[in-house]
Amino acid sequence: MHHRYDVLVVGAGGAGLMAALYAAKGNVSVACISKLYPTRSHTGAAQGGVGAALGNVQEDHWEWHMFDTIKGGDYLTDQDAAEIFSKDVIEAVYELEHMGLPFSRTEEGKIAQRKFGGHTREFGKAAVERSCYAKDRTGHMILQTLYQQNVKAGTTFYNEFHVTDLIIEDGRCRGVVAYDLSTGEIHTYHAKAVILAAGGYGRIFKITSNALTLTGDLMSIYYRKGLPLEDMEFYQFHPTGLSKLGILVTEGIRGEGGILRNSTGERFMERYAPTIKDLAPRDIVSRSIITEIREGRGVGRDGDAINLDLTHLPRETIEQKLAEITDLARTYLGLDPIKDLVPIQPTAHYAMGGIPTDVNGLCLSDGHGGSIEGLYAAGEQACVSLHGANRLGTNSLGDLIVFGRRAGIYAAQYARQVDYGTMPENPEAESKDMLNRMKNASGTDNAALIRKELQETMMNNVGIFRNGPDMEKQVEIVKELKARYKNVSVSDPSQRYNSELMEAMELGFMLDCAEAMTASALNRTESRGAHDREDYGERDDANWLKHTMAYKDLHNDNNVLIGYKDVSLKGYTRAFEPKPRVY
Fold first, then answer.
1. Residue 566, CA distances (Å) to 247, 392, 569 in order
2. How deeply is 545 buried, as exposed, middle or buried, from its count of CB atoms within 10 A (0-12, 13-18, 19+)?
3. The 546-552 sheet, strands edge to edge
């Protein structure tokens, strides 16, 4: 089947819905394709809030937020993106409020704000209350609000469609190919502009907060075309996921006064970050937790967790401001945070890297200013490099609404200026071949077993702490798993809702993301932000103040080509930091 729209959005999370809404405001026809029903998108798992310098609770300024974003990103953040973001997120939050998003409120009726890790006043002097929140369901409320607004704006939705290919010809994107899960049919979408907003790839790790759908599909498809993925070595582990499960425990819990304790009951973050303790940036807290576990002070049957203590907080704070995570702890662990310590462990959470874009969302084809005409990306899928080497908490939801909006505006502007152009002959051929190979394969390898091995080895070898020998081993493991993947067969012949077929296809996407990530991490011989190497323990600005651009070698399936892109600087450097700098 064939469809035609001015602007086509892939993904219906916060970035996709924001992009679709603002494209629709540009008087163009808009459609949104999603693996899921939109309100089930992974943005709904985001609990803590949106960081914006509203100053509703205490004095705050966008310049302070910009500095924290750059500092948190360990100076790999593109500073033009950080400036745009820190200014625009204020307006974007008020826009969400006017759309009807039910933010929590101060006694005066203003949007409530609370502290969050890494957010400070006066360029690092003390923690600041900057996170705008709706209890601990902020992401869920954003999804509901934006979906309603898109229905009102007339956006057409194609739910439970799985994108299998990007149609790019002569440097311009013409549309996408998608598989209809409900019928097994292939659909071709012809568009003047395409916006990619399909989320991250956290499912390559064993313990992750990411939904089952986050398998890096569009990153892989982009990469398979010889186009670059930027800064894939930087992957954030959230300090607090429910033990063994990875289900996210919002940083807002620590913003409300929650304390991390080891097996002796010590508040150990006082040793690692004496100034802001449990509210240090996520990479620092995650490494501190793993250090405590490595040194034998972990809790639980396997000693691989740390306790989160809320028992000193008022019952009403836990029940009202932290209702969702309280319910999750009761449901999945059988523990009541009001009276019980809750075991947590770091969980793979967020990709700082992805498809490279400029500040308007336009996808880049290299590290020297080249681009793909008519193709945009936003959200975790994209790397405008707002987050640099390590994202601050709350900046993900801010990223979705700020750069989702910009991508929608500029995609609609582009669509109004061009015609549709011609589609290549038989654009769905490659997708059909891929699906038919899996359906008709006679191999004996099992996709689930390969996926399990990938997740376990990535967690062990390219996790929170890294070193050259482990990552070299992982390069070979990924090569071996890719070879085995070619022998995967699908036994389910169903046309409708063939989940075995979809999971097998997603595994191929995950292997691509793991390949690019491992090669990029092995190549960067320094420690910066979330990329912590035990064999290169120091930052090296002289050699590594630059973005990694990983390309698939189209002549050698097992080879990754590495290029670079300059960091955009606007005057913030380490010399700017107040001295001494102690978290």
1. 36, 22, 9
2. middle
3. 229-230, 546-552, 560-566
pLDDT of residue 575: 55
Could you tell me if 47 and 215 are in contact, meaning their C-beta atoms sit under 8 angstroms apart? no
Residues of the domain holding 292: 235-349
Cα(452)–Cα(448) distance, rounded to whole angstroms?
A: 6
Instruction: Evaluate whether residue 326 is within a structural domain.
Output: yes
Dist CA 203 CA 514 (whole Å): 10
The verdict on residue 268 lying in a domain is yes
**Straight-line distance from the first to the last Cα atom of the chain, in angstroms, rounded to the nearest whole number:** 57
What residue type is assigned to position 176 of the chain? Answer: V
- Per-residue model confidence as pLDDT tens digits over 116-165: 878 999 988 888 999 999 988 899 999 999 999 999 999 999 999 999 99
Strand partners, 305: 299
Residue 281, preceding bond cis, omega within 30 degrees? no
Whether 282 is catalytic is: yes
> Could you give the number of structural domains in the chain?
1
Secondary structure E strands in 54-185: 113-121, 126-132, 156-159, 161-169, 172-180
Q: What is the pTM of this model?
A: 0.92
- Comparing CA positions, the residue from 565, 68, 526 lying closest to residue 365 is 565
d(CA 90, CA 92) in angstroms, rounded, equals: 5
Options 137, 174, 261, 282, the catalytic residue: 282
Beta bridge partners of 335: none
Q: In what order do the strands lie in the sheet with 259-261?
A: 235-242, 342-351, 306-309, 259-261
CA 14 to chain centroid, in Å, comes to: 11
pLDDT tens digits along 59-110? 999 999 999 999 999 999 999 999 999 999 999 999 999 999 999 999 999 9
180 in any annotated domain: no
Euclidean distance between CA atoms 131 and 116, whole angstroms: 6
The answer as to whether 365 is a domain residue is no
Measured between alpha carbons, how far is 518 from 468 in angstroms, rounded to an integer?
A: 10
CATH code of 287's domain: 3.90.700.10
